[in-house]
Amino acid sequence: MQDDNILLNVENLVKYFPVRRGIVIQRHVADVKAVDDISFFIRKGETLGMVGESGCGKTTAARTILQLYRPTSGVVEFEGTDLAVTKGKELRLMRRKMQMIFQDPYGSLNPRMNCGNIIGEPLIVHKITSGRGEYRDRVAELLTTVGLSPYMASRFPHEFSGGQRQRIGVARALAVRPSFIACDEPVSALDVSIQAQLVNLLEELQAQFDLTYLFVAHDLSVVRHISDRIVVMYLGKIAEIAGRDELYENPLHPYTKALISAVPIPDPLVEAQRERIVLTGDVPSPLRPPPGCVFHPRCPIAADECTGVHSPGLSSERGVPDLREVSPDHWVSCIRV
Amino acid sequence: MAKLLEVKDLATYFFTPEGVVKAVDGITYDLEEGEILGLVGESGCGKSVSALSLMRLIQNPGRNVAGEVVFNGQDLLSLDDDDMRHIRGKDMSMIFQEPMTSLNPVLTIGRQLTEALQLHLGMDKEAAETRAGELLLMVGIPEGDRRLRDYPHQFSGGMRQRVMIAMALSCNPKMLIADEPTTALDVTIQAQILELVQRLGRELGTAVLIITHNLGVVARYADRVNVMYAGKIIERGTSREIYGNPRHPYTIGLLASVPRLDEPRKEQLDPIEGLPPDLIALPAGCAFRARCRFAIDKCATEIPPLVEVSEGHTAACWVSDQLGAGAIGR
Predict the structure, then answer these.
(1) Would you call A191 and B43 a contact, using CB atoms and an 8 Å cutoff?
(2) Residue A310's pLDDT band (boundaries 50, 70, 90)?
(3) Chain A partners of B193 at a C-beta cutoff of 8 Å?
(4) Is the model's pTM score more than 0.90?
């Protein structure tokens, strides 16, 4: 990883949510292992896609990177500063460089604030504009940037459609001129015809403002479209990291293969000939992840070594497969590859 | 094959203080016995309301204002409430989008499953429980008979949807309406559920109406597809025709705006610009005109009817004959 072009470097990031019992004396009885020892990096100007099923920890990973949750352990290096140990004023300064776009266009905007104030709030919080005139100009400029009209600033969120609301979310994220934006399922709540509008907008903005994206989503076809490289997560761990085309043409991890084969293709002729790997069972609970490779209970090619019995080539006593680089920029955590 | 369901000029309006919302505005289609029919459209196009209208589940301020729903030889819209109750859940049943909220959280799965069996099939408690256990096994819930005493929260989303399917199929209905059955589920679970619906539909001879906003979902499973926009069916045909040879600009736009995993990545996505129209104030002429790149003058004044463009394939567009394969550069 001797790459000086790296904007964000995540090493051994862990986020556990403690489960407590008891009313007066709260005993710590277990941990939800939402993100369990993940490492990856994002280069300047690229889009890193992050896919996985619900509960695999992709949203938690994004939030932990932005320090909306403080990590349990691990390093989150942004432009050379470890955010995990940064606090207070210093952290607030770093936050100007990294923003987030949320999944729910309905829940993520305050219904009592008008659109102009929603977009302008970060300008005030970070003391970016001075004076009313400059503030109003900047809000108008932001609205135009995301394809809305300046006169809409006085409207309230309920007066906008889902797609327009998501544009407001984008404008709010852009307000502080960040260099990095974590997009958490920004299009999954939108209709297909509107999804494409927003994806195109995000791509235009990336080129225009030199942005770096972490794009979290469960829709693999959208992720392939927008990303340069893709991280596949399963149960708090990284299953595979590869370049966009490499991942779809040459998936190595059995989970990635199953995930790709499960994506429906809008063409009955193609579908009729496609082989589908239908995984049995459900994702196990992150409270009690299976020992060894977390995917082994559902894995079609699991062997005895995968079940957590100690054997050479495995990192820890839990027998968890290492994420290893099998070809340049293609990482996979499966011992049977 | 015999027609199981014939919907004629069905219209359902909602009478709100702001005006009349024409959610479903004169749709006509049929469903054959044992067939899987897809109903595709975006949110607000009236696809769910049209399904609820079939089941007579429309509530105030909504009302069926016109049309006929002939199911198995009976006009459902003219039945009295008691007779309708005998059909609902027995001959025609429904599974909903949200497996989290459509089960009663304070009743056991067994209690919810046996209710319909006792009511519609007149089984006694014991027989119903045995049957309920079998049903859970049929939909692939391991140790189904032992899980009857569990509550909905003890099941995962995919498992709850399986319970819903078991419940819907418990009385061997002739028709199953699946309203966005997989939208709330993960892709790997989606595949499991759809395979299950298809397999059981075939085994039991149940006709299935799958309602979805995702064109990909129905491509593999549906025999025929209806595409809805702003309360009307704008294109209909076999799925091979709809996906291979779409003739309505909206269908063409929908297919073009989703990135496809089996094709090389496009530099830019090709969205449908603009927003769907407000159903209270529908424009004159074709409702899709404002977003359509093929619109001509006639579209602003006259609503295009559904006309046949090839055998068994109809489209509601004035210029559909110019939109044949290849004409749009896909």
Answers:
(1) yes
(2) low
(3) none
(4) no
What does the radius of gyration of chain A's CA atoms come to, in whole angstroms? 21
Which of A163, A193, A218 shows the shortest C-beta gap to B187? A218
Measure Cα distances from B175 to B5, B74, B87, B239 in Å.
Answer: 9, 14, 10, 20
Give the mean pLDDT of A93-104. Answer: 90
Hey, what are A295's tokens?
């995917």
Interface ipTM: 0.80
Which residues in chain A have Cβ-Cβ distances shorter than 8 Å to B183? none
Amino acid letter at A244? R
Q: Is the dihedral of CA A186, A192, A194, A195 positive or negative?
A: positive
| pLDDT tier for residue B327 given thresholds of 50, 70 and 90 | very low
Query: What is the crossing angle of helices B249-257 and A192-209, to 10°?
Result: 50
What are A's interface residues with B at a Cβ cutoff of 8 A?
Answer: 53-54, 161-163, 191-197, 199-200, 203, 218, 220-222, 224-225, 244-245, 248, 258-260, 262-272, 276, 278-280, 282-283
A29, A64 Cβ separation under 8 angstroms? no
pLDDT in tens, B142-174: 888 888 999 998 888 888 888 999 999 999 999
Residue A65 scores a pLDDT above 90:
yes
**Contacts for A84-88: CB closer than 8 Å, 24+ residues apart:** none
Separation between Cα atoms, residue B134 and residue A137, nearest integer Å: 67
Please answer yes or no on whether B257 and A259 come within 8 Å at the CB atom.
Answer: no
Report d(CA B154, CA A158) in Å as an integer: 36
pLDDT in tens, B47-57: 889 999 999 99
